[in-house]
Records
---
Amino acid sequence: MTVTPALMRVSLNFVVRLIGMFALGYLGFRIGIALSGEPPNEIEALATQLLTLAGAGLGLLTTHRWTVEPVCALIRHMQSVSIAELTVLVFGALVGLIFAVLLSIPLAQLPPPFGQFGPIVAAGALAYLGATLFSSRKKDIADLLLASRRGTFSWSQQVSDAIQPPRRYLIDTSAIVDGRIAAVAQTGFIDGTLLVPDFVLHELQSLADSADELRRVKGRRGLEILNTMQKQMNSAVEVLNVEVPGAMDVDEKLVILARQYRCPVITNDHNLGRVAELQGVKVLSLNHLADSVRPPVVPGQDLRVMIRDTGREREQGISFLEDGTMVVVEDARRLIGREVDTIVTRVYQTQTGRIVFAQLRLENVAKG
C-alpha cells in the first residue's frame, strides 16, 4: 500500500491535534484546580470541567496552526537561507536563551501554572527576539568580526558610530546607468553606504532584457557598474529587500523609502528630484555636481576652441570644452577643423548641463 504525501500530512496534523487536545485540556484542568478552593464546590467543579473541555477543543482545532505549519514554513525558509545568515540566527537565538536562563529563576517563583510555563514562554520569546535582532544587523556583526580579526577594532569608532550612524544614500536607476556614480564613489566623496532597493534592480533587469537596443545597453551597463562597485573595497553597496505597500511607481517607492530611512536620494531624474524635494527629501544630483566642478565660463571670457561640426542654425559652428560642455560659435561654419579665438556672449543652463554661446573675435572674421 502506497501512502501519499498528502495522507502523511493529514496523519501528522491529526496526531499533533490529539497531543494538543490532551495538553491544553490538562492545562485547563490545572488552571481550574488552582483557582478552586479545597475542596472545590459544585460551581468550581463545573468551571474546572468547562476549562478542561475548552482547552481540549482549542487544542484539537488550533494546535497544528502554531506547531506543524510554523515548523514547515521554518524548514522551507531554512532551505533558502545561506550558511552565514543561519549562523547569525543560531548565535542570536543562543544569546536570547542566555537571558532566558537568567529570567527563569524569578519566573519559576510565580504561583502555578505561571511558574511552570513562564520560563518556557520566556525562553521561546527571547530566542526569537535574539535571532531577529541579530539577523537584522548581520552586516554590522560581520564588519565587527572582520575588524576584530584584522586587529583594527576600535571602541572609540564603535561609540562614534552609535552616536552618529553611518551615512546611507538611496540610488536611483538613472544615476546607476549614468555611470559617473562609480567614479564619484571611488574618489571617496560619498562617505557611506549606497542602498539599492530590489525594485531598482528589477527595473535595471527589465532594461537589460528590453527589445530596444539603447535601453538594453543602458540596463546591462547599470548592472555591470553595480557589480564593479560591489567588488571595490571603498564603495559599500547594499541591496535592500524591502516591500513598499501602497506604492506602484518606482519613484514613489524611492521617496517613501528615503523618508523612512532619513537618507538622501542620488538621481539624475529632474522630475523625481522635484517631487522628492517637495516631500522634504534631500536630493543629490550628479548633473549638478558635474556643473559645480566645471571650470567657470562667464560672458566676456576669451576662449580658444576647435570648430568640430556645424550647428543647427545657419552659419553656426560647434565645439566642445575639455569637460564636454558644448560651445556654439556664431558665423563659424566655414571654419570647421580650425582653431579660433572667440568671446563668450552668454551661458545657457539646461537640465542636462550648460551650453556656451560665443562669437568670433574680429581678427578671425578678417582672416575668414
---
Amino acid sequence: MDFEIGEQVELIIGRPTDLGYHVYINEDQVDGLIYHNEIFQPLELGQKIIGYIKNIREDGKIDVSLQPQGFENVIDKNTAIILERLKAKQGYLKLTDKSQPEYIQQELNMSKKAFKSAVGQLYKQKKITIDDDGIHLVK
C-alpha cells in the first residue's frame, strides 16, 4: 500500500518497544512505529486511534505521529486545546513557560515546546494574557 507523508490514517496500537509502539496502519498488515518522545497520551494494546504518516524510510519502514504534521495544523489544534481548557477552568491555567514539561503534558497532552508555540500564537491574537502565575483568557 502506498502512503503519502502527512496522510491521515487509522492506527491500531501494537506492542511497545524500546523506541515506541508498533502500530498497524489502516487495519492492514502494514507496520509502523510511533516514537516514545512523540506520545503525549496513554496508549493501550489494541486501541484504535487516528494518526499521520510522518516519514517513509528507505528501508520501507513507516514512522507515524499522533499529531498532524506541519506548523499550521499543529498550532491550530494546540491553540484550540488551550482555549477549551481555559474555558473549562474559568479562564485561568496555572501554566507558564517555566512550568515543568510533565505538568504541561498532564494538563494538556502536549509537549512544552508545543505549549509555548500555541501560547505565543494566542498572545499575539490577544486571546490570552500572560502573568507570572499562569495564563488568563481575555474576556
---
Amino acid sequence: MLATDAARELIEQRGRPAVAVALREVLESLRAELLSGALPPDRDALRAEALARLPRKVSESRPAGLRRVINAAGVVLHTNLGRAPLGEPALAAVVEACRGYAAVEYDLARGERGHRDALIAPLANAVLGGDDALVVNNCAAAVLLAATALAAGREVIVSRGELVEIGGGFRVPDVIASCGARLVEVGTTNKTRAADYERAVGPDTGAILVVHRSNFALLGFTEQPTVEELAAIARARGVPLLVDLGSGAGGDTRALGLSTREPLSRECVASGADLVMVSGDKLLGGPQAGVVVGGASWVARLRGHPLMRALRPGRLVLAALEATLRAHADGRAARDVPAVAMLSRTPAELRALAESALAKIAEGGIPDGVRLSLAPTEARVGGGTLPLEVLPSWAVRVDGVAPDPLAALLRAATPPVIGRGLDGALHLDVRSLLPSEVDDLATAVTMALHKAVATGAGPKHATRD
C-alpha cells in the first residue's frame, strides 16, 4: 500500500512514518468493518477504500504541536495564545542569533567568558531603570529567585491585599513558601499602611515585597503606602524592598490612548525600590521572560545564586528581548512591537481593518443564508494586565451560522482562527489581528462558512452589509 502513487505523494508531503501510522489505523478500521459485514470481502474494493480514506487520516493524525494561530478574540495579550506576538525586528534577531553560533556568554572585546545579561542590561536599564539587570524565564521566576537569594529561611512581608493568584492557579504565598521563606501578612485586604510594615519588620525579616495588583482592581475604601514610604522603612531597617510589577510597561500607557496609567519600573527604582521585576511578554511586548532591574549589588546577589542557572533563558529569548527593548529605547515601539501597535490603534484604524477583512472574506463567496456585517465591540488588554481597561474595537460579525460549530471549524483551519461568541453570533475582533493575517483569516473563514452550511449549521440566502 505504501508503494502506491497515492501513498507516495503523501509520503513526500508528510514523511513515511506519519503515513505508515495513518495507514495502519485505516486498515484496522477496515478490518473491523469487514468483520461486521459493513464492507464486501473484495480485495480491490478494500484497497481503493483504504487509499480514499488515507489522506484524511493523515491530516487528522497530524500532531497538535505548537502552531501559529490567528487571534481574532480581541484580547491583545492572550495568555493561552502566547501573549505578545513578536515584531519583525525581534524575529529577525532570533533568526540571526540561531543561524550559527552566538556570543551568549562570551565577551568578544576581552576574548573570555562573560555573562549572558551583559548585552541586555544597558538596554533594560535605559527602558526600565536601575543600575544593573538580569533576565530569567518569567516574572514568577524572578520573584522566586529574589526571595530565594535574599530571604530563604527568613521572613518576607507582604500586604494581605497583594496575595494574588496568577495564571494556572499559582499563588504568591505558594511561590514564597517554595523557596523556604516564611510569609508575614500585614494590613487588611483593602487597607494597608506604612505603619503595618514598620511593626512587622524584625530581626528575621529577609525582604519587603510589594506585588502590583495588575490582574484585578481593588476599589472603594482602600489605602496603601507608596513605594517611597516603604523604601524609607526598608533602608532604615537594612532589608531590601522588592517590587513585583508584573505588567512591565515600557512607557506611559496613556500615550497609547489608554485611560489607565500603569506604574513604571523606572519610577519604582527612582522611588527607592532595590529590585523591580517585570514580565517581558506583557505590556513590554516581547518574549516570555522575567526582567529584574535595580541596584547593582542586589542584582549581583541574584546572579550569583545557584538557582539562576536553572532559571536563565536561552539565546532565542535574549535576542528577541534585546530587539524589543531597543525598539522601546529608540522610540519605535508603536511601530515595531505588535502588542504596543495593537493597543495604540484608533477606532477609525480598527474600522478600516475590519472593512478590509470583511471585503476579503466576501471575495471568496458568501454561502446562502450567511450574513456578514461590521460590528462595534469591546476588546481587552489581557495577560492579567489593566483589568478595568475597555478598548473600543470593531469586528466582523457572522450571522446565519451557529457560532459554536463555526468556531470549531475555524479552530481546525490552517492556521487556526480564534474568534469570540457574542449575542448569538461569532465575532472576529480585529484589535488583536495583524494586518498581514487578513488573507489567511479570509481563507479560513470562507472555507469554514461553506463547510458549516454544507453540514446544516446555517440557513439559506446570503447578504452582506
---
Amino acid sequence: MNDLLNNVWAAAPEMALLVAICVVLLADAWVPVEKRISTAGLSLIAIAIPTAITLWQLGQPVQYAFGGMYVADVFAHLLKLSSYISMAVVIIYGNAYVRQRPIPQGEFHSLVLFSLLGQMVMMSAANMLLIYLGLEMMSLSLYAMIALQREARLPGEAALKYFVLGALSSGFLLYGMSMIYGGTGSLDLGEIAAAWAGGQADPVVFTFGVVFIVAGLAFKLGAVPFHMWLPDVYQGAHTAATLVISTGSKLAAFAITFRLLVEGLVGVAADWQTMLMILAVLSLAIGNIVGVAQTNFKRMLAYSTISQIGFVLLGLLAGVVDGSMDTATTAYGAALFYLVTYVLTTLGTFGLVLLLARTGFEAEELDDLRGLNRRSPWLALMLLLMMFSLAGVPPLVGFYAKLMVLKAVIDAGLVWLAVLAVVFSLIGAFYYIRVVKIMYFDEPRDLVFIEPQPAASATMAVNGLAVLALGILPGPLMAACLLAIRQVLGG
C-alpha cells in the first residue's frame, strides 16, 4: 500500500494532467460552444493543476517510483515548471492565431497538452523504456499538430518530413538502447552506470550503443549533421506548432540527453564528449553561417536554434575533465541555465510572429518586419530585446548564459573551443542585428495598426521583462540550476 501511495504521489503531476486532458477532450466534444469556456481557457486550467502539484513537491526529498523507473527530483521539477510556462504561453500567444485559421481548436489544444505530458514523462524518466515512451508520446503529438492544417501543402509536407526523420532517429535511439541493454543486462540508468563501474559491461557493445544513442539525441536537439529537418519543419509548420517544437520539446530533449549521458553513461564520457565536441562545432558553424543567407524569418530562427544548441552541447561536454567531475556541477548547470533562458527568448521571438500574423497574412518573411517600429513601437522593442539576447548583448540574459558556458569550457581546458564559439557567435550576430535594422530603419510595407489581445500583450510584456531582468539578476535561476544538477550528481 505504501508503494502504491508513493507511486501515485511521485507521478501526481502526470496523472492530474492526463485527467485534465480527458476533461478538455470531453468538453470540446460534448458541451455546446455557447455553454462552455474557451478551449484555450480550459487548457490553461489543465496546466495550472500539475503546476501547483509540482510546486508543492519542490520541498520534498527525491522520490523514486514504479520500481525506480521514475524519479521526482529538483532537476525534473525545474524543467517541468519551465515546460508548464512554455506551453501556457504558447496557448496565450496562439489563441487568436488558431481561431483565425482552419485549425481545430479542440484538437490543437489537446495535442499541446499531450505533448506536455510526454515532456513530463521524459523529464522524470530514470529508465530507457520510460524515456522512449515519453519521447514517442511527445513526438506523435507534434506530428499530428503540424498536420492539423489538412488543406495546406507546406504543413503536410513538414509533418511528413518530421515523421519520417523522427522515426529514423527513434530507430537510432532504440538500437543504441538495445545494445546498452545487451552489454549490461539492464534498462535502469543507475544500474547501467553501476555495471560499467563494476567492470560487468561489454565495452565494445557499450561503445557502439553510445554512438547510436548520441546520434538519436542529436536529431532531437537539432544538432548538425542531424539538423536537416529543422529549417523545413520550422518554416512549413503553422507558427503555433513551431513554437511548441522550439520550446517544450527542446527542454525534454535536454532532459533525456542529460539523464542518458550523465546519469547512465558517464563511465564512457570520454567517448561521447568527443562526439558532442564535433556536433557543437558543426552546429555553431552551420547555424551561424547559413543563417546569414536566410530571408524567411522562421527559417532564420531555425538556424539560430541550431547555433544555440551548439552552446548547450559545449556545456555538456565540459563536465568531465580527464575523468574528474570537479567542474561537472558548474558546466552542466550552465548548460541547463542556457537552455531555459533560450526557451524564454524563443517564446518571445515566435510569439511576435504569432501576434503580427492576421487572417491571410503570416508575417514569416523578414520583409514583413519592415518599419515595425512605425506600426507598433512596443512590439518592435520586444523583438529588439529578443534579438539582442540571442546575439549575446549585455545586459540581456543571453549574454550571461553565453558567458557561463564559455567559462565552463575554459575551466575544462578547451580555450580554443571557447574562442571558436565566440568567433561564430560574432558571425551570427549579423542576422540578429539585421532584424533590428529592418524594423527601425526600413520603410514599412503597410501601415496596418497592430493591436494584439490584452492577454497576449500582457504576456509579451512579462516575457520581455524576464529576458531583461534575468540578465541583470541571473543569480536565483542560476542557483536553482546548480542545485538541480548537484542533486542529480549526488553532491
